[in-house]
Design brief:
This protein is α+β, with helices and mostly antiparallel strands. The protein has helices at residues 28-38, 40-47, 86-98, 176-192, 236-248, and strands at 2-8, 11-18, 57-62, 71-76, 81-82, 105-111, 114-120, 125-129, 134-144, 148-156, 160-164, 205-210, 219-224, 258-261, 267-276, 279-295. An eight-stranded mixed β-barrel has the order 1-2-3-4-6-7-8-16, surrounded by four helices. The radius of gyration is 18 Å and the shape is globular. It binds pyrrole-2-carboxylate (PYC).
């Protein structure tokens, strides 16, 4: 299986170029369901140790279903599948350019939650124009073990987020364990109290905000991903969800720049346009760098060919 690893503002992506499962030629959402039902061992082999890590997002490159797209992609991680992934879309575009398969300019990606475009500015910098994003509910209170009542907004940015304006733990990189524990408790409380996204969708990302450290950024965040890892980047879909909330509150105007800082101090530059029906179209710019160009090998006698599934 040929893979290229990159990182986008610190968050890793592994693009699967060949050797992936045959998922047919249907819509990407249908192919994602086939992937989950029939080939989940492939996901585990790619993302779990000893070949992967908790932070890694896999991006299976496939043929698009939509005629207006150049490529199709299905994102997955250590625990399951993602509708969209902002950092990994930037990583994919930079990877295809590195392979001389994509010139500078616009690349249209077909994803399970809709088409996304990526504008490659140079070999390492790209802007994604994400799926329409929106705030679903504002000022939702949830009682969280050890934290008391926590208030947040629920928003869609290609994945579902619970966004807490004031982080319950200071947003310092030496607090990552405490931040992860607190965000994990919030996530469990949302489930316990039946608080969901639209149509009962599980809220699988929790995002805390606070003041930026850099004078060039507007805000700092901490994002807990579904498998328990934290996002090293400011999270493309999480920044889209944040923009949707700022737009809904009238705190950010269309085309106004928003710089989101991550917990490790990396940045995404973002803005939006109104998309109608209370939705926005977010644009997120970040940088990705190639880390390795490799073949993954799973030997038949390897007891961990399908990854280490911790009890
Ligand atoms: O950048 O959208 C993102 C993302 C989602 C999970 C990890 N990164």
């Amino acid at each position: 299986m040929r893979v290229i690893d990159s990182h986008t503002e610190g968050e890793p992506t592994r693009v699967i170029l060949s050797g992936g499962p045959d998922l047919g030629s249907g819509p990407l959402s249908e192919r994602q369901r086939i992937f989950a039902r029939q080939f989940d061992s492939f996901r585990r082999a790619v993302t779990l140790e000893p070949r992967g890590s908790d932070a890694l997002v896999g991006a299976l490159l496939c043929e698009p279903h939509r005629e207006d797209c150049d490529a199709g992609v299905i994102f997955f991680n250590n625990t399951g599948y993602l509708g969209m992934c902002g950092h990994a879309s930037i990583g994919l575009a930079v990877t295809l350019h590195y392979l001389e398969r994509a010139p500078l300019g616009t690349l249209r990606l077909d994803t399970p939650v809709g088409p996304v475009s990526v504008q490659l500015h140079d070999a390492n910098t790209a802007t994604i124009t994400n799926v329409p994003s929106y705030r679903y509910r504002s000022d939702v209170n949830v009682v969280v073990e050890g934290l008391g009542s926590v208030q947040g907004d629920i928003a869609w940015g290609g994945n579902w987020f619970f966004l807490v304006k004031q982080s319950p733990v200071p947003l310092e990189s030496n607090n990552i364990k405490a931040l992860s524990d607190a965000a994990g408790k919030v996530r469990r409380a949302l489930t316990q109290h039946g608080i969901t996204g639209a149509d009962g969708a599980e809220i699988d990302h929790v995002e805390f905000f606070g003041p930026a450290h850099s004078e060039h950024a507007d805000s700092r965040n901490f994002v807990l991903c579904p498998g328990g890892a934290y996002d090293r980047s400011p999270c493309g879909t999480g920044t889209s969800a944040k923009l949707a909330c700022l737009a809904a509150d009238g705190l950010l105007q269309p085309e106004q720049r928003w710089v989101q800082e991550s917990i490790i101090g990396s940045h995404f530059e973002a803005s939006y346009q109104w998309a109608g029906a209370g939705r926005i179209t977010p644009s997120i710019t970040g940088r990705a760098y190639i880390c390795s160009d490799a073949n993954l090998v799973c030997q038949p006698l390897d007891p961990f060919a399908e990854g280490i599934v911790a009890a």
